[in-house]
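Case study 2.
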Amino acid sequence: MNKFNCSTCGETHPLITLLEFPQPSVVSEISSGQVERHLNVITKNIYGIDRKKIVAKVELNLKIVDYEDELDILIWVEVEGTHLTEKIHELLASKGDNVSLDGKLIQEMPFYRNTLNSPVSLTISRDGFDICIKKLFEKYV
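Prediction:
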């Protein structure tokens, strides 16, 4: 089996169970000195930029119809600093509870057109960041 039927859009795609995106250009341009901005390394997959936003690598899991595995996409998202500021009290008060943040994709997803800047909902837990689809595929529903 080298193709799968996507449960999200209903189309057939090549069967790949893991896709990982490289570091976004905004991070590599700052770290290489091409762009003059402040980069704060929070973890190896979470960066603060100019204290105005964070970019984070998150895992998006999509169910594959007629196959026992999921399509895991490791993709980068952005969360605005103003939104983080609004959620800071909830984040600090969290004792193992999940906290949701709104963000957007900063990379185009394979197989899906027009996903750049699509809104997503992030969940922060003690295990790190997870991502769930919020509005990304509403045109397919």
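Residues 4 and 61 are 15 Å apart (CA to CA).
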